Amino acid sequence: MKTFKTGATKWQNKHETFVENINNLYEIGNEHSMDALDGYNDTTKGLQLLIAEAVNAKLPLRALGAGWSWMKIATADGGLMFDTKPLNTIFDISNGSVDPKYKGDVTKLFFAQCGNGVWEIGKYLRDKNLSLKTSGASNGQTIAGLIATGAHGSAFDFGASQEFVVGLHIIVSPTRHIWLERKSAPVASASFIKNLQTELVQDDDLFNSALVSMGSFGIIHGVMIETEDLFLLEAYLRRMPYDDNLKKLMTTLDFSNANLPNGNERPYHFAVNINPYDMAGGVYVTTMYKRPYRTNYKRPVRNLNGVGPGDDAAVFVGKLTDALPALVPGLVNKLVAGAITPYEKVTGTLSEIFDNTTLYGKLLSAAIGISITSVDKVTEILFDLNKTNGPFVGLFAYRFIKKSNAKLAFTRFDFTCILELDAASSEKTKSFYTAVWARLEKEKIPFTFHWGKMNELNFTRIQNMYGKDADTWIASRNKLLDKESMKVFTNPILQQWGLDKVI
Ligand SMILES: Cc1cc2nc3c(=O)[nH]c(=O)nc-3n(C[C@H](O)[C@H](O)[C@H](O)COP(=O)(O)OP(=O)(O)OC[C@H]3O[C@@H](n4cnc5c(N)ncnc54)[C@H](O)[C@@H]3O)c2cc1C
User: Fold this and answer.
1) Sign of the C-alpha dihedral, residues 257, 263, 267, 272?
2) Which CATH number is 231-456 given?
3) CA dist 235 to 119, 453, 476, Å?
4) Which of 231, 272, 280, 300 can bridge 398 by disulfide, Cβ–Cβ 3.0-4.6 Å?
5) Which of 82, 134, 141, 353 is the best mutation target for the ligand 1 pocket, counting ligand atoms within 8 Å of the beta carbon and taking the most?
6) Residue-by-residue DSSP string for 334-380
7) CB 254 within 8 A of CB 373
């Protein structure tokens, strides 16, 4: 493995919301003089040496994905970081690599090294007439970074990104790396394990814990992913009244009487954006329907001024700045009018629709999971708090996701509504967030936090949110990592969350 020690002593996340003091940032890469498999195995050894170095230096170590998270999860105060983006080999999977008991379609499996961008994977799959089953709204994350926080789109009958992962190659210590998969869903053959020179571990609890692990289960070197045939999305963005019909859709996901662009057809993706300062004109409803792939469609055109098909508010809210309270409604209305343009029947593949890697300026983004049954009540609370603790310089956005198997997935309700609060970066936004979390707790409305976005987690909250699943996650981490490696993969935020427990 190639290693270049940059000597950087500070690191800033992509949204410029914090700067962390670090010991060093390493740029690493595969040895391209080797063939793909030898290069991959050589990098496994290189990553083990990196862990050994951190153990010896008594420093925390963190893998950096694309650096898109708002929380300090890809870094550690005074620690070592390494940039995984150049680790972007992809392997096709043949029958010989797959356990005969595997229940899926081998032709739709592939194995990706951790640093592949979601956009890179999209390109690779397209050439094979395949597609990821879902992604986030934008596609600049690395595959391991995406899964590590349980990132999601609004493919509510599929789920969040970790649902398409069926195997993980994890480097857990300087001397041990493993292939982890569910015992109930074996995937790797003996020859695949031999090729990676690794050790097979089949365990449902360990696997479901390691999926959403915020960088603290060792280094995820590669992931086995299930895909599906390339498909098209037919996307619409309409303004609609926030009336009882729409509220019913949002609280039930029952589309049998829906009055959406394709009538009552159940969409693949459904999302609602509310501008609290312009309810009279209606809210913004995005609906996308899955269609078989064909070549004769007009490629989607990016909206350079703001939200294109698939984008979430995070791509343009960075243009908002803090303002005097009386000016906030006008400011938000002006930005929204310029950025969100309704569209009809825009067609593209998943990676064409959810394609944005461009970030505009500083912004804060928080996202919480609530049960869809709470959507109405939570919206009332937001409008109420906007009067007493606002005005909130941003939008209220809603996406919908099926329950995940991952132990610490924040998509834990049977159907979770992810409420996103993207807003100008300011102390006022932060205090609005705090007021929302406090009010939800006061009203006993269960919710979870997106691990990569602004949150105020502590162990009490985590226990309330995840119950026994948090204990299983901690026990799994203790089982997989030895004591020295646990220290290396512990950073201050993990300690603040109380997830660093040694048992
Ligand atoms: C414009 C924008 C749009 C977004 N849209 C969405 C969205 O639609 N849905 C959503 O859910 N989220 C969204 N997010 C949040 C984002 O998807 C998550 O924060 C995601 O985890 C970031 O991925 P990353 O590659 O940047 O990882 P990073 O932020 O760099 O890292 C995230 C975590 O992954 C760990 N990690 C990375 N690589 C490895 C590895 N190889 N081994 C072990 N650990 C590793 C890091 O240590 C860290 O703990 C968005 C963010 C932005 C900036």
Assistant:
1) negative
2) 3.30.70.2520
3) 19, 26, 41
4) 272
5) 141
6) HHHHHHB--EEEEEEEHHHHS-B----S-EEEEEEEEEGGGHHHHHH
7) no
Ligand 1 close to Cβ of residue 352 (< 6 A): no
What's the CA gap between 25 and 81, in Å, rounded?
Answer: 5
Structure tokens that stand for 475 in this block: 């026990």
**Cβ atoms 290, 372 nearer than 8 A:** no
Q: What does the pLDDT read at residue 143?
A: 98
CB of 422 within 8 A of CB of 365?
A: yes
Q: What is the pLDDT of residues 9-38, one digit of tens each?
A: 999 998 888 999 999 999 999 999 999 999
In terms of phi and psi (left: phi > 0; alpha: psi -120 to 50; beta: otherwise), the region of 7 is: left
d(CA 491, CA 75): 7
Task: Indicate the pLDDT class of residue 411, thresholds 50, 70 and 90.
Answer: very high
Tokens of residue 129, six digits:
């007439």
CB 499 near ligand 1, within 6 Å: no
Query: What is the architecture of the domain spanning 2-229+471-497?
Result: 2-Layer Sandwich (3.30)
Residues 288 and 268: beta-carbon distance below 8 Å: yes
| Ligand 1 and 136: CB distance under 6 A | yes
- What's the whole-model pTM score? 0.96
- The alpha carbon of 355 is separated from its chain's Cα centroid by a whole number of angstroms, namely 14
* Cβ 28 under 6 angstroms from ligand 1: no
Domain map (residue ranges) of the chain: 2-229+471-497, 231-456
Q: Is the CB of 313 under 6 A from ligand 1?
A: no
User: Which residues contact residue 379 at a Cβ distance below 8 angstroms, ignoring those fewer than 6 apart?
Assistant: 274, 396
